[in-house]
């Protein structure tokens, strides 16, 4: 009798399981299959069309000896570090301000989250206009009487990444703020009461009590933001097209260039594989901390 319920577990929520079959098959065939296919052909000398001519690590040697790829990696690393620091810091500060039970909180939350609803293409075009020296911030300030004012980050190789960073922060900070606010609202009210009774300043409570308790929220936010940074493409194409020169090139643009313009699929596959490896480097530690750490604990 005890074996029957165990045998019937397979048929529990049968409709839901059957409905999930197409999605599971699509994931296995398209995502897993496509990923394996890309990795395998990154070891070939494919040009215009895929062909199985094994060349070992030659594509990867060419990749890392290519100045354009190295420039793209450096640009992404700089943008990524700055974006992670400022997005998480600004998101947390805004969440703390909204957590003070201010009036019209829902309105402010909606306004801050609105940019996240826009695509990176729209964001890039909007900020391209705003930062355009002939019609944007520079021109507005000069019309106010400050004729020597200069603010043209997108046309200067030394500052173009900061121009991209401004647009990226404008779009992503609201989403980070909502994640942080959800974490703050999950803090037990008794902790705040105990801190007030003990006379602990609010900033110390946030710094030494709240932030350590929000560790899972910070880790999840870090993973989400980092995964978005690695595949950065739309924003750069819309805002700078990789210029001036190669000052704002990113790995995703390198992949597109070699796969669809230079007709060198093997090189594009190698670059794609390195991007996949970067994502795994971010995801595997997060998965271990979230699941493996709990199991060992």
Automatic annotation (TrEMBL):
Q: Which UniProt keywords apply?
A: Cell membrane, Membrane, Transmembrane, Transmembrane helix, Transport
What the entry lists under PROSITE patterns is as follows: ABC_TM1
Q: Which InterPro entries match?
A: ABC_transporter_permease, MetI-like, MetI-like_sf
Q: Where in the cell is it found?
A: Cell membrane
> What domain of life?
Bacteria
Q: Where is the ABC transmembrane type-1 domain?
A: 73-286
Q: What is this protein called?
A: Sugar ABC transporter permease
Q: Which organism is it from?
A: Cypionkella aquatica
Task: Give the taxonomic lineage as stored in the record.
Answer: Bacteria, Pseudomonadati, Pseudomonadota, Alphaproteobacteria, Rhodobacterales
